């Protein structure tokens, strides 16, 4: 069957008129991989699956929501869209705006965007403005522009983003044939945990599937929901979750409560170690923020949280190629050799 993107695939779950033409780059339909090597490494009693969102058209799950937000903007006659971003939202907004023939404006915290993401926003043709502030400052400005002009905000405060992102849950339940018992994911603005929970609930209502417990993880220096207060100067190596005042804070707390899940902290060192482990054990290169879902899984395993009956899905939210700098920082560089067989063999046999 020809794949046509998440709007067509899950049309009946979309709050769009039936005849609207989707603006799509064929996002979604991402791999759900059983991670047996990782399970062994982590000594996990449960089954572990990885939902790798890095295969989306711009390399992150943001594309699932952006196809819906941009499609709706076009339907409403918008001419331009704007977003604040830690990087991936801007890459996705810029790409879908390009496809739709809309102008895209992007407000970014200066110096805190992985180079791959910045390059994407620029090459897709967005007008990129860096501010001397953090993501939360950028979002405040974007909200004001949204109120004062006709430019459409495509951050996850745009409800159509959540509607698209919930399709990842649908894919998981369809692939497994049932819902997992637990779903682990990184939490930044908390749009994604909100979207997954909405998706699981909608699927459950329609098909009678069970519901997972939602497990969220924030980086130690950017953990407002765990701490229960705004963090004024969020810091973490995982720039995609460097958020001090999450836009979907309440909805995330609601998802955690309703699902009897939990939200916890992982340290930057644990995030980077999980990133390396996922790559070496499973052949998947995800970005640092993504690896928090597995860093968190590891932490809960060490607290005997899971049993043999459990099935855990970890979302790997974005592609590691976006941020090669962070990934290369603490791995050994390549070996070097004279261009001679004997020298190379010596290194190989070492
Ligand atoms: C946006 C993003 C997150 C955080 O998702 P929220 O919906 O803001 O909680 C995590 N990882 C990656 C790679 C992202 O792009």
Structural overview:
By secondary structure, the chain is α/β, with parallel strands linked by helices. It folds into two domains: 6-56 and 161-329, Rossmann fold (3-Layer(aba) Sandwich), CATH 3.40.50; 62-158, Rossmann fold (3-Layer(aba) Sandwich). It is 44% helix and 15% strand. It contains 15 helices and ten strands. It has helices spanning 6-9, 36-42, 62-75, 88-100, 115-123, 135-148, 159-165, 167-176, 191-207, 224-227, 249-258, 268-282, 288-302, 324-329, 341-349; strands at residues 32-34, 47-52, 80-84, 103-109, 127-131, 152-153, 182-186, 213-219, 262-266, 311-316. The strands form two sheets. It has a six-stranded mixed beta sheet with strand order 1-2-10-7-8-9, with helices on both faces. Helix 9 links the parallel strand 7 (182-186) and strand 8. Helix 8 crosses helix 9 and helix 9 (191-207) crosses helix 11 (249-258). The longest helix has 17 residues, at 191-207. The mean pLDDT is 97. Pyridoxal-5'-phosphate (PLP) is lined by residues 60, 62, 88, 156, 186-192, 240-241, 287, 289-290, 317-318.
């Amino acid at each position: 069957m020809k794949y046509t993107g998440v709007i067509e695939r899950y049309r009946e779950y979309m709050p769009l008129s039936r005849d609207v033409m989707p603006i799509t780059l064929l996002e979604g339909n991402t791999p759900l991989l059983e991670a047996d090597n990782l399970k062994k490494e982590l000594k996990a009693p449960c089954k572990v699956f990885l939902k790798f969102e890095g295969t989306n058209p711009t390399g992150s799950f943001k594309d699932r929501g952006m196809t819906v937000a941009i499609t709706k903007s076009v339907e409403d006659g918008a001419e331009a869209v704007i977003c604040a971003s830690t990087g991936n939202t801007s890459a996705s907004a810029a790409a879908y705006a390009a496809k739709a023939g809309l102008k895209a404006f992007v407000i970014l915290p200066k110096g805190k965007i992985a180079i791959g993401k910045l390059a994407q926003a620029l090459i897709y043709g967005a007008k990129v403005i860096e501010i001397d502030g953090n993501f939360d400052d950028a979002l405040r400005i974007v909200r004001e522009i949204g109120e004062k002009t006709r430019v459409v905000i495509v951050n996850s405060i745009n409800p159509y983003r959540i509607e698209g992102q919930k399709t990842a849950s649908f894919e998981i339940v369809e692939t497994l044939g049932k819902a997992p018992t637990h779903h682990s994911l990184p939490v930044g603005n908390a749009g994604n945990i909100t979207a997954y929970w909405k998706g699981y609930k909608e699927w459950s209502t329609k098909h009678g599937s069970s519901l997972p417990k939602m497990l969220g993880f924030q980086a130690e220096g950017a953990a407002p929901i765990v701490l229960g207060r705004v963090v004024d100067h969020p810091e973490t190596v995982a720039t995609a979750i460097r958020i001090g005042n999450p836009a979907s804070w309440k909805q995330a707390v609601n998802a955690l409560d309703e699902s009897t899940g939990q939200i916890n902290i992982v340290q930057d060192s644990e995030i980077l170690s999980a990133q390396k482990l996922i790559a070496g054990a499973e052949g998947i290169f995800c970005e640092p923020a993504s690896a928090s879902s597995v860093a968190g899984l590891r932490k809960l395993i060490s607290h005997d949280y899971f049993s043999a009956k459990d099935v855990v899905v970890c979302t790997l939210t974005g592609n590691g190629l976006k941020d090669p700098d962070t990934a290369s920082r603490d791995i050994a560089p390549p070996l070097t050799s004279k261009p001679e067989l004997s020298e190379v063999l010596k290194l190989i046999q070492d």
